[in-house]
Fold this protein.
Amino acid sequence: MATVTVEINGRPYAVGCADGQEERVRALAGQFDGHVRQVAGEVGHVGDLRLFLMAGLLLADELHEARTNGGTAAAPEAPAAPSTDGVAEALNAVAARLEKIAQGL
């Protein structure tokens, strides 16, 4: 098993992977880092766990759209203006609960 150090939002993380998969892990980490930085630019400093959660949700949404559209990803949308529909508040509440659970581990 190989170990790769990737950088997400300016911080290094060691990740284990199968031998020969190092470049793929680096490429995937680069994609994830882009999403994390996008979220950080939109919502500001909310902690790594919340940034990672929101970036993960963005990636899950992209995957869902790709699967729904027969394997073709929809064109990325422009960043949405802040809304008052409670979505951000709900995400923050979920992230806060995850942080609380993580602290208890």
Summary: DSSP finds three helices and two strands in the chain.
